[in-house]
Amino acid sequence: MQFVCETSRLKDFRLTNGCDKAGKLKKFLLFTISITISSFTIADVGAGKEQFEKSNCQVCHDTRGPAWEESVDDQLSKKGPELWYAGSKFNKPWLETWLASPSPIRPMQYNSILKKNAGNHVALDAAGAKAVADYLMSLTSDAVAVGKITPKARAKGKLIFKKKMSCNGCHQYQERNEVIGGISGPSLVAAGKRLNPDWIYAYLMSPKVFKPIGRMPGLEGVMRKRDIKEVSSYVSSF
Known about the structure:
Cytochrome Bc1 Complex, Chain D, domain 2, 2 domains, two-stranded antiparallel sheet, 9 helices, 4 strands, about 40% helix
């Protein structure tokens, strides 16, 4: 829609024919559109939360945040990963697809290094997966800054991952079409599709913000920030 305004000058004034009305109408339309979009977003999140609870996801996954665990017993009481920062952690296309057709992310059962993951996570139908993904993506953490990391498979990041920090001792990853690495932590195969690069960096810096009770060491103060960014970029490229 294009508004054409004619102007004329009268001494120190500029009188406009139609400009004021056109401007007000344009602002009103933009305001109405923004309210409509916000309403749809709120409705989508509300419907997703309802589907989340209807599917009993809350039985295994905690959406309370920030992290509340204070002891090993608190951690062991959880049946699955916490999701209060899911919107900062996951990429939505992957999340929606995974909810409809889940496959094991951890080789071992949650909270165990002895029992194999049974791979029996509940699958949602397409509509349910989209609704729950909408809801989970609304759960974010201020600890994850935006625009910090760009996925890049550089030699330095690879060296830190494999040699300096030996991340492959606990995490599987793919190299030359072969899955290798440890099984005590979550798999990093196709991590770039699953995880937000900025969350990877935030987690490597301060894992205790997200998981106060866990085996993952924080790298802040142990490595230079630029090196932490290098390994974050490398993992994001998987």
